[in-house]
Design a protein that fits this description.
With about 450 residues, the protein is an alpha/beta fold. The protein has helices spanning about 10-25, 50-65, 100-105, 150-170, 220-230, 240-250, 260-275, 305-310, 345-350, 355-380, 385-400, 405-420, 420-450; strands at about 5-10, 30-35, 45, 70-80, 85-90, 175-180, 185-195, 210-215, 235-240, 255-260, 280-285, 295-300, 320. It contains 13 helices and 13 strands. α5 links the parallel β8 (about 210-215) and β9. It is globular, with a radius of gyration of 23 Å.
């Protein structure tokens, strides 16, 4: 298998993979958690597309075969001079395997049997990388949209066959531990060259910052605390409204991270007690929080998100949908125009700051191009439920930047998708795609003219 190496940002790759996997656990009983060691060097030299494919295939398999519980990703790095050995662990609480099946995991693919469920090529086989380029085209979804257990098993096996071949071709290794009825863990190590020792995430003046966390879901709470500790920032975890209010009254916290449902119970108390503090609400993918006074973090939380929050950088942290508009300063009104958008409205929705608005437009553009591919894939696989979820997120994002026409079109298609009207979605999706593509081009041209950089954002190329 051909390996094509080049320069890439590991934080960007991780953010991309995490964003895709979190959409695949929507409306399921699976909780996706991520722990990233902030000390991993960010600018690396290697085959970015192969690393991405490895992670997507392994994590997609974990999601596919986990009905409830968790899927997790842990990434660490061991630095040795100008190289780093990345260790990426994908674990789940899914079906698991018997010891004999684990032992024969890469010993061949037999359709329909237990070993074949994750089958591939023999570990260490010199021929493992030959002839596999076409084996698993389209298997990153790990059998998404496939009907029938046998076909799903076949595609799952093909996905891990590709993983095994890619890991071997890159000079890495893959190990598996599993217990039937408990779950599985795939541990992948890959050597990469370091181009810069700048970390994937770091916090400015970490000793000066304190974070209060209110999260009752243990698996998420542990992950959030781990991420904050990893960044060298002091934090306190509370698990009841009473504990939260006590800490807010006596503690000096610059940041409060709180789960969205819990925030609704203490919204007014937070506003009164946390003047000057930044409140970040944890929300599910596409979930709207009607409060312009908070930041919204899409789960799962990890060190890249936390670093951007504590550094005051807008990234995947966004202002909430449906909040109260602020007036656009007179010196800005009418000075930044984009065809197809009410930019003055968008600036108001994002706090009246042009710099913030331009930053959000950049993120919208990046996500918009990804959204085009995701929506087309939903059409091809006839997954109207996932389509409705994607256009719901597009609807809110478009409304926030003042793209009302696009938002209304997305709303119409969301309604059709929720109603299972695949024929209507098929007939009108291209119109949405055309509107989105034209808008993205207009936004890119406007940003290029504005030429605002806004500072470093972790997790972006």
């Amino acid at each position: 298998m051909k390996i094509v190496e080049g320069e890439y940002l590991f934080s960007s790759l991780l953010s991309d993979v995490i964003g895709i996997i979190r959409t695949r656990v929507i409306d399921s009983q699976v909780r996706f958690v991520v722990n990233l060691d902030c000390n991993i060097p960010d600018r690396l030299f290697g085959d970015k597309l192969s690393v991405r494919r490895i992670l997507l295939n392994v994590l997609s398999n974990a999601v596919k075969f986990t009905d409830e519980g968790f899927v997790s990703l842990v990434a660490t790095g061991a630095i040795d001079g100008d190289s780093v050995v990345l260790t990426m662990e994908a674990a789940d609480s899914g079906r698991g395997m018997k010891p004999e099946d684990v032992a024969g995991l890469f010993g061949g693919f037999a359709r329909g049997d237990a070993a074949g469920l994750f089958g591939g090529f023999a570990r260490g086989d010199a021929a493992a990388g030959k002839g596999v380029e076409g084996v698993g085209k389209g298997v990153e979804g790990a059998g998404k949209g496939v009907e029938g257990a046998g076909k799903g098993v076949e595609q799952a096996g093909a996905a891990l066959a590709i993983v095994h071949s890619l890991v071997g071709a890159m000079g890495g290794s893959i190990e598996v531990s599993s217990e039937l009825g408990v779950g599985s863990t795939f541990t992948i190590t890959l050597p990469q060259k370091i181009l810069s020792h700048e970390k994937i995430a770091s916090v400015q003046n970490p000793e000066e910052k304190r974070v209060l966390v209110y999260e009752m879901r243990e698996i998420y709470a542990d992950s959030i605390i781990c991420s904050i500790d990893n960044l060298g920032v002091a934090c306190t975890l509370v698990s009841t409204d009473t504990e939260l209010l006590e800490e807010m009254s006596c503690g000096d916290y610059g940041f409060v991270i709180i789960e969205s449902d819990l925030y609704e119970n203490v919204r007014e108390q937070c506003r009164a007690a946390l003047k000057g503090a930044t409140v970040a609400v944890l929300a599910g993918y596409g979930e709207a929080v009607a409060d312009m006074n908070v930041r919204v973090i899409a789960m799962p939380v990890h060190s890249i998100f936390v670093a951007n929050l504590l550094n005051g950088v807008l990234d995947d942290l966004t202002y909430a949908e449906g909040g109260t508009e602020k007036e656009t300063p007179p010196q800005i009104a009418g000075q930044f125009q984009i065809d197809g958008m009410d930019t003055d409205k968008g600036i108001k929705m994002l706090g009246g700051k042009l710099e913030t608005y331009v930053r959000i437009l950049g993120l919208f553009t990046r996500d918009g191009y990804e959204k085009i591919g995701e929506l087309r894939e939903c059409i091809e696989t006839e997954n109207v439920r996932l389509y409705a979820t994607y256009v719901h997120a597009l609807k809110g994002a478009a409304a926030n930047i003042g793209a009302d026409g696009l938002s209304e079109m997305a709303k119409t298609l969301e309604t059709a998708g929720k109603g299972g009207d695949l024929a209507f979605v098929r007939a009108n999706n291209q119109k949405l795609m055309t509107m989105l593509e034209i808008l993205l081009g207009n936004i890119e041209a406007a940003i290029a003219e504005y030429k605002g950089d806004g500072g470093r954002v972790y997790g972006k190329d």
